[in-house]
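Checklist before submission:
- one chain only
- standard amino acids only
- sequence pasted in full

Submission:
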Amino acid sequence: MAVYFSIILVVITVLTGIIWFADKFYLAPKRKLSANAAQLAAREQSGVELTEDTLARLAEPSVLVDTSVQVFPVIAFVLILRSFLYEPFQIPSGSMMPTLLDGDFILVNKFNYGLKDPVARKKFFDIGLPERGDAVVFKYPRDPRIDYIKRVIGLPGDRIIYRNKSLYIKKACKSSDVKCPEFVQIINTFTNKYTGPDAEKGLSQFETVMFDKTHNILTDRYSMPRTSQYFKQAGTAPDEFLVPEGHYFVMGDNRDNSLDGRFWGFVPEENLVGQAVAIWMSFDFDRDDDSFLPSWIPTNIRFDRIGAIN
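Returned file contents:
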C-alpha cells in the first residue's frame, strides 16, 4: 500500500508540476496578451476601456490549470518531506513493548541511512548506516509489502548469540584491529514486573545497555526457548547468527513475543526505510467488552508517551 501511495503521489506531482510550469511560462503570459489585445480592440472600435474585472476574467485560467497551480507546491512539499526527510507510521504490533505500544504513531527519519528515490527505492546518496541499538522500520524480507519495526542488534560481520534469554555480541573484526573482538554479554538490569499497557502475567522489564546505547526490554518468564524454530544458518550453532555483508540482524524489545531475525534471518540494507526517532501521537483503545463504540475509535490520548524514542 505504501508503494502504491508513493507512485500515486509521484504521478500527481509530475502532472501538476508540468501544468504549473506550462502556466507560469506559457499559458499565463498568453492569457495576459489576449487580455491586452481585447483591451486594445475595445479601445480602437468603441473608445471604451474594459474594466479591471473584465480583464481579470479574460486572464483567468481554466479550473484544471488553476487547481494544478494551487495544488502543486503542496503536493511537491509532501513528496519531498515523505520521501527524503520524515514519514509518519503506525505499526500495530506489541513486539517492541515497552518502547512502542499498540496505538503509538511514530515519526521515521528517512535521510539518516541515505536518500532513496520514492518509487524504485534505489539509494542515490549515501549519508550513514544503522548503528546497534537503532529502532528501524524496514520492509519485511519475506513480504516487502509489509513494514516491520525492530531494533538493530547486529551489524554486517557481527556474530550474535541469543541463549537462555541472554544476548552476546561479537563485533566484526576490522583490518585495523590488532586483536579481533571477543563475545560481549549485553547486561540486563531488572527494573520491575511490567504492569503497563497490554501487560500479561510473567512479563518483566529490564534496562539493557548495548555498548553505548540504553533501552528497555521485556521477557516472559513463562515462555520457553524456541531455538528449534530459529533461522538455520550453515556453520553456526542453532542459537548463533553470523550477519552477512550488506545485512542487519534485528530483534524486538518484547523478546519472547517478537517474530524477528531469530526466526527469518537478516534485513538487507535495501529494505531499510529509516530510523524511528519519535512518537508524535499515542492513542489508547482499551474499552469494556460491552462498549458500544467501534474498536477503531480511541478512548484516550496518551500524552505522556509523546517524545523521542530510545
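Reviewer check: The two ends are 28 Å apart (CA to CA).
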